[in-house]
Structures are given as C-alpha cells and as structure tokens.
Design a protein that fits this description.
By secondary structure, the protein is of the alpha/beta class. It has 15 helices and 15 strands. The chain folds into 2 domains: 5-35 and 277-368, Aspartate Aminotransferase, domain 1 (Alpha-Beta Complex); 37-275, Aspartate Aminotransferase, domain 2, CATH 3.40.640.10. Strands 4-10-9-8-7-5-6 form a 7-stranded mixed β-sheet, with helices on both faces. Strands 1-2-3-13 form a 4-stranded mixed β-sheet. A 4-stranded antiparallel β-sheet has the order 11-12-15-14.
Length: 369
C-alpha cells in the first residue's frame, strides 16, 4: 500500500482512494495528519533556521523543553532530546547504569522497547531478539502486572525496571492499576530506578499527557517519541534533577537531537493538545469505544485505555485487518497474539468516526460468517 497524502484522520493512496487511519501513522499522529498548527510551525521554523546542533542555545528548544517539563509529572524537570524511541530507551538505560553503578535491568515479558542493541536486550519478544543473541548481559524478565514475578527477577545487580504502562505491540495488554503503585514503592525500597517507556502511552492517548499521571505514579525516567512532535522525528527522556546531574557534558549526546524543526513541531504539538482540549475528549471517546465494541459478538475482549485499544477476535486478526482495509480503515495487528487488532487513532478523532468504524466492522463480520 502507498500513501501520498493525509489530512486529519484520513489518508489517500496514489489512485485517490481514502482511508480512515485508525493506526495513527504507526501510533504517531496524535494531532492527525498535517495538522495546520504543525504545518505552520515547521514552515515558519524552516524559514528561520533548519538546523544547528545542540552545542548552541536555541530559543525554540528552550520553549519545547519548558512545555515538555510542564506536561510531565512533577519531579521530572530535566530533558534529554534525541530522535527516536529506541534512542530514548538507550539513553535511559545508560543513565540507569551510570547513576546506580549496576548493569542489571528487569524488563517485562512481551514488552517492546526498540531495535537497537540495548533496547532490544530489554525487549521481551523472542521473535525480535533471537537472531541477535548474545544481547546485553544482566537482563531478566518478569510477568507484566505481577509483583511476585518482579520480586523474583530483581537481584543485587538490578539498576532499573523498565516497562510500557500498556503493552501495545504485545496486544494492548494492561496491568492492574495497583501494580504501578506497588512497583513504585518496591523500587524505592530496593533503590532501583523505575523507567516508563511512554513512547506509545505518552501525549494524550490515555486521556492524560502521560500514563504516569493516569496511574498516579512518578517514575524516575520517562522515555518519549512517536507522538511527541506529531510526526516529525523526535524523542526525549524526562528525568529528575538528580538523575540529570549524573551525566556530565559530553558523556552522552546526539547531533540531531533537539534540532530546531523537531522542537518547533514539539512545541506546536504540545500546545495544540492543551489549547484544543484534546485530553478531555480521549476519555469520552475511550469509554464510547469500550461500550460499543463490547456489544460486537465476535469481539471476545476490548482492551486498553482511551485511544490505545485492542480487540480480541475469535478469528485471525490478519483477516479482519484485510477486510477493514477493503472497507477503507487502517488498523494494526499485534505481535504476541494473532487474534488481536490494535487501533491508536489521532486524538482529534470524532465520535462519528468511531461509529462509522463500528458499523463497518459489524458489516464485515456478518459478511465473514
Ligand atoms: C513502546 C515502544 N518503545 C519503543 C519503540 C521504538 O521506537 P522507535 O521506532 O522510534 O525507535 C516503539 C516503537 O514502536 C514502541 O512502541
């Protein structure tokens, strides 16, 4: 499939056929495609300065950092800017090693954190890991949502626990809300850092800027990418002042991280989420999805939170995905469960769009009977 144009939640192929993009351009386009605020910010910045590295001060970077820190849970006041999710996770893992002097990481089975070596080492999906062994030593895996399993995995060498607050690639798996509070307390007690990979859960998809706020827990680091700049490549790590001080100038860096265009896109994205009241919409829309799709006979389970949703079917997800595509809807499948469809639509999605999707899915499932 080729996509040549996008606007709002629609995209078009070269023949002019339109699709409703419930996959959000791969969980990225929180504002929808080519949102005017984003187009304007990138255009205006490109006229002023396309690039200079972070070796110099940049006003647009300072504004983007300020907005990011204002959106983050209270203690996370420092930002490291990079270009992608995996780079944000690599940074957080390096920081954890430096800060604690230990190299063990506890990650979750079926969790996904990226494709470079450290991120892959803490990714709990065998299909992605196996061909690249040996990966980094010292990684141990626990069951997501299970504190006993986390306690078993932790040892004297554990520097940090890393997890996705909702395991998206695995099939939109959630953990009991109390798991996060217990995990936070346990990490404090054991002097272990807690890292939330919010590359998918961040920037409004759960009705809060971050899942950390949804679960009312402040981790020591949050890694961000995907929605952070509405589709312009960017990533960031949010950390406490204390964590930020562990690393001296020059010990870690990135040429393109925090570049002017990425920061202009980030500033516009964060501003638009706030000004347009998009967070409040997500909760209502999420509740609507839950109610509506719970009534679909062949949907065995509606998963996830807000606009990060999974539907478990009694038929292979690939068939449903193909049928939906023919009806003009783009959705994703999951890596760990072949019968789960995932959607992560833009925050601007309307109730009518969801209703239309529901009707098309009902029709498709009747045709497939
Ligand atoms: C939860 C999570 N972490 C990390 C990554 C890696 O991000 P990137 O592809 O930007 O490196 C992804 C990408 O899908 C992701 O979903």
């Amino acid at each position: 499939m080729a996509i040549v144009r996008g606007e709002g939640i629609k995209v078009w192929d070269p023949e002019g056929r339109s699709y409703t993009d419930l996959y959000g351009g791969h969980a990225v386009t929180v504002l929808g495609h080519s949102h005017p605020a984003l187009v304007e910010a990138i255009t205006e910045q490109s006229r002023k300065l396309i690039f200079y590295s972070n070796a110099v001060y940049s006003d647009v970077r300072a504004r983007a950092c300020k907005r990011l820190v204002e959106a983050a849970p209270g203690k996370l006041k420092k930002v490291f800017m990079c270009n992608s999710g995996t780079e944000a996770n690599e940074t957080a893992l390096k920081m954890a090693r430096k800060y604690t002097g230990k190299n063990g990481i506890v990650a979750m089975k079926e969790g996904f954190h990226g494709r470079t070596v450290a991120s892959l080492s803490v990714t709990g999906i065998d299909r992605y890991r196996n061909q690249f062994a040996p990966l980094l030593e010292g990684t141990r895996f626990a069951e997501f949502g299970n504190m006993d399993s986390v306690r078993d995995a932790v040892d004297g060498n554990t520097a940090a626990v890393i997890l996705e607050p909702v395991q998206s690639m695995a099939g939109m798996r959630t953990a009991p809300p109390e798991f996060f509070g217990e995990l936070r307390e346990y990490c404090v007690e054991k002097d272990i850092l807690l890292i939330f990979d919010e590359i998918q859960t961040g920037f409004g998809r759960m009705g809060k800027m971050f899942a950390a706020q949804y679960y009312n827990v402040t981790p020591d680091m949050i890694t961000c990418a995907k929605g952070i700049a509405g589709g312009f490549p960017a990533g960031a790590v949010l950390l406490t002042d204390e964590m930020g001080e562990t690393i001296a100038m020059g010990e870690h860096g990135s040429t393109f991280g925090g570049g002017p265009l990425a920061c202009a896109a980030m500033e516009a994205t964060l501003k638009t989420i706030r000004l347009d009241g998009l967070l409040a919409r997500v909760k209502d829309l999420g509740d609507h999805i839950q109610q509506l799709f719970n009534t679909v006979d062949r949907v065995k389970e509606v998963r996830g939170v807000g606009l990060l949703r999974g539907f478990k079917f009694d038929i292979p997800a690939k068939e449903v995905q193909k049928g939906l595509m023919e009806k003009g809807f783009i959705v994703g499948t999951a890596v760990s469960e072949p019968d789960v469809i995932r959607i992560m639509p833009p925050l601007i999605t309307a109730k009518d769009d969801i209703d239309e999707f529901y009707r098309s899915m009902e029709k498709l499932l009747t045709e497939m009977n």
